[in-house]
Specification:
Length: about 100
């Protein structure tokens, strides 16, 4: 199978395509079970996403919606540091550093 990469910048993205039937009204072949067909409106090519790829996309979307910082935990730690109740477990810190270095 040959993939023409030169057309990628000149054609619309697959996300801009039409799901189900082609934009020009012609019907497309049925996708294998568990796959969603997507046809780019200009190129006429069809892409089939497997069920696993669809699940990965959903998971990726959910992760993107999650905050990157746990604000509640940060506020809790700031308060503990400010009032002097935060205790550092030196043995645990040293163990984690050793574990990290062993993985490298």
């Amino acid at each position: 199978m040959v993939i023409d990469f030169s057309r990628l910048n000149n054609s619309p993205s697959v996300a801009g395509g039409v799901r189900g039937t082609a934009a020009n009204g012609s019907s497309e072949k049925a996708a294998p079970t568990g796959e969603t067909p997507v046809r780019a409106s200009e190129s006429g090519e069809t892409v089939h996403f497997s069920q696993e790829a669809q699940q990965l996309q959903k998971i990726s979307d959910k992760l993107r919606d999650q905050p990157t910082v746990n604000s509640a935990r940060v506020a809790e730690l700031k308060q503990a540091i400010a009032d002097g109740s935060y205790q550092v477990d030196a043995g645990r810190v040293a163990g984690k550093l050793l574990q990290f270095e062993a993985q490298r």
